[in-house]
Design goal:
Blueprint: H1 3-20, H2 25-50, H3 58-72, E1 76-79, E2 82-85, H4 86-100, H5 106-113
Antiparallel strand pairs: 1-2
Helix pairs in contact: 1-2, 3-4
Amino acid sequence: MNLEATAMFRVALDLRAALTSNSGIGEVMGGVMLLLFGMIASVGLKSLIQDRADLDKPRNLIIVSLILVVGIGDLSLNFGRFQMGGIGLAGIVGIALNLLLPQKSCLTDIILSYKWLL
């Protein structure tokens, strides 16, 4: 049995135990959410490694960094009654940055020209 199957089996047992007894469902759901978001992050890192994403390119590093900060930091935007945050907003930020940031080296030139600030 692989690690993911074992972890999901354990979560199912904990959830079943919490639902059948009158224990705190909030604590169990908190553990389930930690596991869920941890697995999502692990799958994302695994796909970055498998696809050999070139994080030496500033464009790729900026996109990955902002996705992580928006997703983990739980940034949210409000537009009237509409609110978006967390993983959904991180996904939209990643797509937007991928479309907006230039593919060519002008981004590298801009970043390197401000290197004296560091």
